[in-house]
């Protein structure tokens, strides 16, 4: 399969950009994006797909031309930053850009999952996304930097550090 050439830079609201709006990924969780990458699926640029068209997925999968969508350049740069080569030799390739695009899965997940507002529902995610959630969560905890998950506007940290109280002081 051949793919339409991606734009050279991610669009202004690409979820892989460090400056993207935290928590805004559409219906997919950050881990669902990682699951797609792990499975070798091409990710479309959301600005080149008409999601209102009920046939958009078939058109995107057929890759008949630019009118059927372009691959997300943020996704391609993210893979390059992670030094992860696509399985499909026909995937377009873009050079790394660690200043503009996330470099690790933990950075990407933290940026979107730690947002006070999110566009997805964890209950509606596929099994692959749930598995990636555990993998990234465990990796961040092993690094000593657990991901703080916001739920209903409240912080629910995976670990809570308590400062020892001095004797004779009130809290």
Structure overview:
By secondary structure, this protein is mainly alpha-helical. It has one domain (30-156). 29% of the residues lie in helices and 4% in strands. It has helices at residues 30-38, 56-62, 73-81, 105-113, 127-142; strands at residues 149-151, 154-156. It has a two-stranded antiparallel sheet with strand order 1-2. Helix 1 packs across helix 5 (127-142). The longest helix has 16 residues, at 127-142. The chain is globular. 30% of the residues are buried. Mean pLDDT is 83; it is low at 152-167.
Q: How many domains make up the 3D coordinates?
A: 1
Distance between the termini: 64 Å
Structural class per helix/strand content?
Answer: mainly alpha
* Largest sheet, strands/sense/barrel: 2 strands, antiparallel
Mean pLDDT: 83
Order of helices and strands: HHHHHEE
The 3D shape can be described as globular
Given as residue ranges, the uncertain stretches (5+ residues, pLDDT < 50) are: 152-167
Q: How are strands sequenced across the largest beta sheet?
A: 1-2
* Proportion in β-strands: under 5%
Quick summary:
The protein is mostly helical. The chain has one domain (30-156).
Protein traits:
mainly alpha; 2 strands; 5 helices; 4% strand
List the topology elements:
Layout: H1 30-38, H2 56-62, H3 73-81, H4 105-113, H5 127-142, E1 149-151, E2 154-156
Antiparallel strand pairs: 1-2
Helix pairs in contact: 1-5
